[in-house]
Write a structure and sequence with these properties.
By secondary structure, the chain is of the alpha/beta class. Helix content is about 35%, strand content about 15%.
Length: about 300
């Protein structure tokens, strides 16, 4: 396993994309984001770390696991003492790794969960254009097991009818038949044949086809910033579905009317997502009651 610091990620200097931003204030927590990958996802890990640095204003540290480490063989990954969040690239999840000190767990964001935020947002921008409210909508997910959080996010978003489909169902239940009369197909397997020709005028469902290169990047910087800057009580629930849904709704609000999602991550989008995630975290943390005098009630 190797650990790599990205150039300038441990300093408080500004970059060209964030001129005029006070990075010292943003990094006041002293916490670092650890981005975990392996040789097959090294370029991706460095890209994520650079994005977190540039748009969230946070120091990042890339940790690459040994090339021969298998997903089904958990490995202990020592984290830097100042790690405030962990981002896992590729197919790795927190269940496949022992991260840091078990007595003091660090919030872990898996790439596929961050991607699920964008897919949820794409669905929520597509349904209104077809005159469908979430609770009145029928949605089919092809390959739901590739984004395990997605179904929970769609339920939290109020989607009324969700059907899951996988390759093994194709013989008895062809996807086209399962999707008859539905409002949207979320194609996580790349099996829907007419992505480019699907239109509401033809009575076809809206098709959500994730962009693996873009989608995880949209919510990542803002969500990580919210987690890093949250008080300890909030950070323990940072992976709550409601927090992820708040990020998805922020993406919806930032999406132009003719698109399913914002085209690229940027500083404004990171700010929107960070604000939404921070509010969701704050709403889910119990606060002591205060009297009118401003003193804590006992």
């Amino acid at each position: 396993m190797t650990t790599q610091h990205l150039p300038d990620h441990d300093t408080t200097t500004t970059s060209g994309t964030d001129a005029g931003t006070d990075r010292t204030e943003q990094r006041g927590t002293g916490r670092v984001v650890a981005v975990v990958g392996d040789p097959t996802t090294a370029a991706q890990a460095h890209r994520y770390a650079a994005l977190i640095h540039d748009l969230a204003g946070l120091p990042s540290q890339v940790i690459l696991l040994d090339q021969n480490q298998r997903l089904d063989q958990p490995e202990h990954v020592p984290l830097p003492a100042e790690a405030g969040a962990v981002v896992l690239t590729g197919a790795r999840t927190a269940d496949t790794l022992h991260l840091g000190d078990p007595a003091d767990p660090t919030p872990v964001l898996a790439e596929r969960d961050i991607a699920a935020i964008a897919v949820t947002a794409a669905l929520l921008t597509s349904l209104p254009r077809r005159g469908r409210a979430p609770r009145a909508s029928r949605v089919v997910i092809a390959g739901a097991d590739t984004l395990p959080m997605l179904c929970r996010l769609l339920v939290a978003a109020g989607i009324g009818d969700i059907t899951t489909w996988k390759h093994q169902d194709a013989v008895a239940f062809p996807l086209r038949r399962v999707a008859e009369g539905v409002d949207a197909v979320i194609d996580l397997l790349g099996v829907w044949p007419t992505h480019e020709h699907t239109t509401a005028d033809l009575g076809e469902p809206a098709v959500i086809a994730p962009d693996a290169e873009r989608d995880p990047l949209l919510a990542l910087p803002g969500l990580v910033r919210a987690i890093i800057q949250a008080p300890d009580a909030a950070r323990t629930i940072a992976l709550d579905v409601e927090v992820h849904l708040a990020c998805a709704l922020a993406l919806v609000m930032a999406t132009p009317s003719h698109q399913q999602l914002p085209q690229v991550p940027n500083r404004d989008l990171a700010d929107r997502v960070a604000d939404a995630a921070t509010q969701a975290l704050d709403a889910r943390v119990p606060h002591p009651r205060t009297s009118r005098s401003g003193r804590s009630a006992r």
